[in-house]
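Long-time lurker. I teach an intro course on protein structure, and each term I like to show students one example going from raw sequence to a predicted 3D structure in token notation. This year I'd like something fresh instead of my usual example. Would anyone be willing to generate the tokens for the chain below so I can use it in lecture? Attribution to the forum is fine with me.
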Amino acid sequence: MSDRRPRASWRRAPEPPASASTPAPPAGSPAQAPADRPSVVQATLYREGRRVSSPDTLAETFRQLRRYPDGMAWIGLQRPTEEELHSLAAEFDLHELAVEDAMEAHQRPKLERYGDTLFVVLRAARYLDAQEEVDFGELHVFVGPDFVITVRHGAAPDLSAVRRRMEKDPDLLALGPEAVLYAILDAVVDGYAPVVAGVQNDIDEIETEVFGGDPAVSRRIYELSREMVEFQRATRPLVGMLHGLMAGFAKYGTDEELQRYLRDVADHVTHTSERVDGFRQALTEILTVNATLVTQQQNAEMRALAEAGFEQNEEIKKISSWAAILFAPTLVGTIYGMNFEQMPELGWNLGYPFAIGLMGVVCVSLYLIFKRRDWL
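-- Reply from a regular --
Happy to contribute to a lecture. Here you go:
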């Protein structure tokens, strides 16, 4: 992080001189609309760790900061317009690449140094208990010798709480923009703790559902796995970023108290990153176990269906066998009962017993055949 440098090293735009040629607005005319949009959340000036003023517009913030060479401006924006960012870039000499990144969300967490200015991209997260989802926000931070500019894309983190915390500790705030950056990093990392707890609870519930045979658990596992991929992308780069900041402690003369604070934040980030990696591995294993259980359940269902089909086939064979046995005497009796004059059996005394015997022989033969084939 950078030392507090003389203000002369900054190419701050000069304050425009008053001009008598500029006509004043006529009496009774509506006041000119302010240049700032509602995206300016708060702009505050500090001296020696204490609030000096809270200007209503960016232009007023610039003018007051020029009057306090030893002051620090903390400007908070939420989804700013292109004009606002260009105004800040012209005032604080922000690099055009950093400004271009700040205009667009969906940036990867990173830390870039442009001269005396640090540009930091953070991914904040919060756990939505009702929806059982992780909501990710994006925060871009410009840190210079006498200013901090935060650009939020999303609801998290709550920087107003960070501001109140810092104002309650003037000694820490007096350390300058580096202290504000520490407080923002600490707030983002602390915001991961409820997310970790919520995800751990979800995984415990998922394990119960997996072994309980809940058919909807696969979708829940998949959705939570996707959120863990996003969580990994938010936390893993922070480890390298904080180690990069710590590597520059000696070069940029970072206060020893801030060094201890940042090392503590780095420890928390490392712990969180390891937990997230563990969550993703656990979800992968749970998904594998669930797939195995689903396959086993499907095999059991298929086996039950096969057994039911086999039993049904056996019954069909029995019915078919008895139908064939009963069909044979019916066929003989049908033919024998026809009123033909030229039939040998009509003039034969044994014709009737022969027909009955033939029916019996055919039925017994069929019964023995079907019995041998285990159809009966």
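Some talking points for your students: The chain has a mean pLDDT of 79. Residues 256-336 form the longest helix (81 residues).
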